[in-house]
Structure formats: structure tokens, C-alpha cells
Amino acid sequence: MPPATAAPALPWGAVWGQDAAVRTLQHAASDPANMTHAWLITGPPGSGRSTLAYAFAAALIAEGPDDLATMRQVIAGTHPDLTALRTERVIITIDEARRLVERSAFAPSLGRYRVIVVEDADRMTERTSNVLLKSLEEPPERTVWVLCAPSEADLLPTIRSRVRSLRLREPDVDDVARLIAERTGATSDIAAQAARHAQRHIGMAQRLATDPAARARRDETLRAVLRVRSVGDAVEVAGRIVELATDDAKALTAERDADERTSLLRTIGVAEGQAPPPAVRAQLNALEEDQKRRATRSLRDGIDRVLTDLQSMFRDVVMLQFGRGDDLVNSELDTDLRALAQAWPPQRTLAVLDQLQNTRRNLEQNAAPVLALESMLVTVISGRTP
């Protein structure tokens, strides 16, 4: 991808590598005859689902391509005709879905359309999804729903039947590496490694390229799993993985938590360093509860990312077992992975990959992270599912 020579035009400038999807949505936004009032944007993590959803919302709400002020307001998330759900919880609750349905019934106040964007729509349970069904099927004439999820299979068939699906392409590793180098100033080697380790997830690649501690935590996790030889090792490494994921989650949320607390105290007139009066403790407690929920989700997301990294490592082992060593995600571990590929039959590696997927499902059902990881590591030791 050649370096950009000029700032891209709003609202599509932040959308990268999804030209076909952009053309589809531009066509829909420019001509009401082409509009569908419920969309599902799917694609792998990091492919730009949410970025594209907000660009589409900006194009729908603005009066035309020259209405840049409105577009900036939509992309910033402050326009009154945009309702966005970015849940800080592990799941989207029924109450959150009901509030969206209520908002969807309002006519647009300033723009051409009212747009409802639901990020991570795959976090809806069946009961929550059912709350949206009628609104998706028969929305008001000037209301548009835009759902985002990794794949169509992550949503109920009843939801899928009521939306128009738009699947995003997965970018090439080399393209992601070039983008990360341009955005962050990272060296080409670091950018290439980050893109490879992130498996083309742009946001994760950017973090790995700019955060040496995140790179170190990832490397430590993979090497620790490779050293597991006994049940005692499994218990120790499972605890260490949760500890590292907790550290990672704190690194992501600590600064934001502090900024939110400072902003709240400033808004209610409490000077820095001054003890908050009893009258505002309820507000502070509510903020802290929200932050705890966000921390829980961040930890679960961090453990899920560890599972993704482990899947990439054992996928490398399978590739080596079948004579393919030219496309390893974790080439830095080449010697260890080749030794494992020779020591294990392919069936054992495939059993580990199956158990990693089972562990992901167990965590989605609120299994205790340490116990779920211990169970997974027992399979690494034995090659048999517990």
C-alpha cells in the first residue's frame, strides 16, 4: 500500500483496506432506493467493523458530502441522531437493548436518518436478541440499524434474516505491517512482527508495535505453555497466564479510570487532591462499579487474546507436521515448535486446538478463568481432553 499523499475525505478516511464495502455503503447512503434499514457488518477482529459503521452513520446523517461538520460530530459520537452501544460488560443486557429500541422509534432531530450502531452484537444473548427483532424487521422509515459482529454465525438466524450482511475482507500481513509502520513510526521489523503476531488485527498490531511490555507478556505466555510438563506446571502456568492478562487489562484501563474520576470530580467542583464530599459519593460509587465491569470485560478479552495466541502457536505446529514451515505466525519459536512437531502426532496437536476452542466457550459461559486454563493445559500435557 503506497504512503498516503493527502488527508482522506470524510467520512470514509479512517476506513482502511475495505474498498468494496465502502463502495457498497456509499451507494446505499447516496440513494434511498438502494437503502436497507438494517445492516450487519461482519469481519474478523481488527478488520474495521466499527470504523466502517460510524463512517456509514456519518454519511447517512449528513445532508451531503459537503456537510463536514455533521460528519465530524457523528464520528466523534456526539450527534443527537446517532445512538451507539459500546458495552463495557461481558454481555449486552436486555435493558440496554430496550433502550436502543426506544431510541430507534424517534424521528431524526437534525439529520437525514437516525442511526443505531451496535458494536459487538455477538455479545447479545438469545433473550436480548429477541428484543430487537420487531425493530429490525419494521423500523421507522428514517431509522437505520447497523450491527457489528465477527461473523453471521455469531447471531441468531432470526436476526440474520432481518438484516443485509456485508462481510469485510481480511487484510494481508504485509499490508498491515506497512500501515502500522506509517502510523506509529515503528521499524519495519517490529511492524512486521506485530502484524504477524496480531494475525492482521490492526488495533492489536498497533499495540504490539508500540508497547514493548505487551510484546514481552505475549512471548512469556507462549514460552511458559511450551514448558508445561506436569499437572503442577499446568496449575502454575494457568495462574501466571491470568496474572499476565490481569496486568495487561490494568495497563489498558488504569489511565482511563483515573481520567474519568478526575473529570467527574472536576465537573462537580471538587479540586484535585480535595476529599470528595459525602453528597457525591453515590456518583463516585456508580463510576467505580462501571469501571469494575469494564475491568472484568477487559480481563476476559485479554484471556481470549491469549487463547488466540496459543491457537496460532499450535496451528504452527500442525503446519510443520504437514510439511509447511514457510508461513509460521510465531517464527521466533521455530526451534521449539519443530521439536514439538516431531515429538507429537498430528492428532494430539489437533486435540489441543479443539480444547482451546472448548476453553473459549467455557469462558463465555462464565467458567472460572484459572480452572478453564488448567483444564486446557492438562490436554497440552496428555493430548487427551479432560
Features:
386 residues; alpha/beta; Rossmann fold; Zinc Finger, Delta Prime, domain 3; 3 domains; five-stranded parallel beta sheet; 15 helices; globular
Provide a descriptive summary of the structure in words.
The protein has about 375 residues and is of the alpha/beta class. It has 3 domains: about 20-165, Rossmann fold (3-Layer(aba) Sandwich); about 175-210; about 230-380, Zinc Finger, Delta Prime, domain 3. The chain has 15 helices and 5 strands. It has helices at about 20-30, 50-60, 70-75, 95-105, 125-135, 155-160, 175-185, 190-195, 200-210, 210-225, 230-265, 280-320, 335-345, 345-365, 370-380, and strands at about 40, 80-85, 115-120, 145-150, 165. Strands 2-3-4-1-5 form a 5-stranded parallel sheet, with helices on both faces. Strand 3 (about 115-120), helix 5 and strand 4 form a beta-alpha-beta unit. Helix 8 crosses helix 9 and helix 10 (about 210-225) packs antiparallel against helix 11.
SS-based structural class? alpha/beta
Strand content: 5-15%
Walk across the major sheet and give the strand order: 2-3-4-1-5
How far the N terminus sits from the C terminus, by CA atoms, comes to 47 Å
Helix content: 55-70%
Run of helices and strands: HEHHEHEHEHEHHHHHHHHH
Number of domains: 3
Number of helices: 15
Number of strand elements = 5
Query: How would you describe the shape?
Result: globular
**If classified by CATH, what would the architecture of the largest domain be?**
Up-down Bundle
Taking Cα atoms only, what radius of gyration do you get, to the nearest Å? Answer: 23 Å
Low-confidence stretches: 1-8
Report the major sheet: 5 strands, parallel
Integer average pLDDT: 87
> Any idea of the CATH topology of the largest domain?
Zinc Finger, Delta Prime, domain 3
Broad CATH class of the largest domain: Mainly Alpha
